[in-house]
Amino acid sequence: MRLSARAAASLVTAWAAGWFAVMVIGGGSSWPFFVQGAHALADAHDRVAGGLHLYAAAPVLQIGPLAFLAVLPLLPAGPAAAMLGWQVLGAAAGLFVVYLVRGLRPERDRTRLAQAALYFVPVWMFLAVGVVHVDDVLALLLSVAALRAARSGRPWVTGLLLGLAADAKPWALAFAALLLLLPGWRAQLAAVVVLGLVLAVAWLPFFAGDPHTSAALRYTIENRPVSALRVIGVRDPRTPPWDRPAQLALALALGALAVWRGRWAAIPLLAVAARLVLEPGGNKYYIAGLVVGTLVWDFVGSRWSSPWWTIAASLGLFLARWVPMPDAWHGRLLVAFFAAACVLLLAPAPARASAPSELGHAPSPAV
Question: Is this structure's pTM higher than 0.85?
Answer without folding.
Answer: yes
